[in-house]
Amino acid sequence: MYNSHRGMVPNAPNTRLNELLDSIRAEFDNQVGRAGEYEVQITNQMNEMDMVRQKLYQLEQQHAVMKQKYEEDVARLRAELDARGGPVHSSHVAGAPPHTGPAQAPPPAIGHGPSNLFGGIMTGQGGQGGPGLAPPPQELPPQPHPMVGAPPGLPQAGPQPQQPPFPGYPAPSANGYTQPPPPTSSPGPGKGPRPVRGPPGPATPQQAPYPDPRASPQIARPTPPPPPPQPPIGNVGNTLADLDIDRLPPSQKREGTDWFAVFNPRIPRVLDVDLVHTLSHESVVCCVRFSHDGKYVATGCNRSAQIFDVTTGKLVSHLQDDSVDKDGDLYIRSVCFSPDGRYLATGAEDRQIRVWDIQNRTIKHTFTGHEQDIYSLDFARNGRLIASGSGDRTVRLWDLDAGHQLMVLSIEDGVTTVAISPDARYVAAGSLDKSVRVWDATSGYLVERLEGAEGHKDSVYSVAFAPNGRDLVSGSLDKTIKMWELTPPRGMLPGTGPKGGKCVRTFEGHKDFVLSVALTPDGAWVLSGSKDRGVQFWDPRTGNTQLMLQGHKNSVISVAPSPMGNLFATGSGDMRARIWRYVSVPTPRSQFFPPSLV
């Protein structure tokens, strides 16, 4: 049938579809609007976070300024108190005689102003031993300290072949060792003179070395106390300096003409050690470092760096900048070879990094920018990146090829040591604030901060990456070495904060400050050098010390293993560097059952 109204009937399905599309469109517009609102909110929140971060940074800066001013005021007040003949303050060692002489100025400190990192370690005259480094034993005055010598006016009995121990320290035991009092706290930098917290007693013109561990000092005492009972062999733990070498069987010691090594009687002996070369210098040897092919060893001392042939022990190169003013001392605190052996980088007290062309004995680059002494350098294995650490509270990265500075990493306290990871992705630094920090070398983000309850209790003076790049060792004025397991993965986003690595091992056994640490190229041993004049080999798996080597007459400031293995070098305040050989030895069955443990 024909419907005359057909053209007026609406198309119902099409109308419904249009309504649905309009509804969807409206909902879409609504969601777009909400997304825009969320985007605005996120942007506002990010802006607020940036403001908070900036405010936090400003507060940290204000806090640093206030701390600086406070410590300067404390230093000034202490100086005034000493000048007026006031009471002995806490930096003096308990048991020392009261100060009755002229007032002493506060010891020098690392930081902005008088800079002297080693001043808190080995107080000495710069003219002989370098700033903060003890002069060699033969330069010391013969007068004994009142604490350990005869009373004033009485002659000394017998010959005096050795010097007295550190002022204010107790007299040595029968085996020649003595336990110094612990440092009070870490030294810190400042814009003016500040008290160094942690030196061994009051500042003195010169420092005597530890006495020979194999001989008792020939110093008369009116009423000598009875000798303390000697512990059974093997009951000293890792403090091998407490062993009496005369009581040890031949299998647990090794003696040279002017050195000796003792082996831990509680564990199997698996190493032997021998002296290869003695490299004499005219001043304190601040640092030692092998070339990557193991053929040469470099040393840093007053005004020059020297390179020796490892096989012959002969001097092959003497690097000295003749354009520098000849007056005063200029100690080279750190040296490192480029991976290809063509260059040697040196860091010195004049705040400059010199990169020497070894063959031509010319300076390829001079990097400037640090505001205080440079204490540590490291070359990346890519041969292009150099890291430096300074008392000016910064770590700086330099591009050797381009010849300019890449990055400045600032912290709250003086930087004492730096190391670049084997893959050149990370740079680590130890500081006077007791912390170890690890940065991403590309972005500059702080990815690890190693401190806290399981961290060091005093300034960190040395850090070194393990060959696997995952572990790190650090040595401190708290007399310990710590091994850290870095947290993987170490990448991070800005603002998330550094991760905290885990301390997997603490090595205890040195009797004084640990000044240098390193790992052998196979990662099998941790080496350490100390103010107690000893070098120790540690098993990183167990924390046990394998041996203790005594071969220097003053603090062992630097230890360095050869990248080729089986050799290591030491540098000391006795004006000598030494090259040593270590080898694995068969372990007899009797070594597994020491007599003291049967």
TrEMBL record:
One Gene Ontology biological process: DNA damage response
Pfam families (alphabetical): Tup_N, WD40
Organism domain of life: Eukaryota
Natural source organism: Xylona heveae (strain CBS 132557 / TC161)
Gene Ontology MF, one: histone binding
Compositionally skewed regions (Low complexity) per UniProt: 94-103
Record keywords: Repeat, Repressor, Transcription, Transcription regulation, WD repeat
The protein's name: WD40 repeat-like protein
Domain Transcriptional repressor Tup1 N-terminal: 16-84
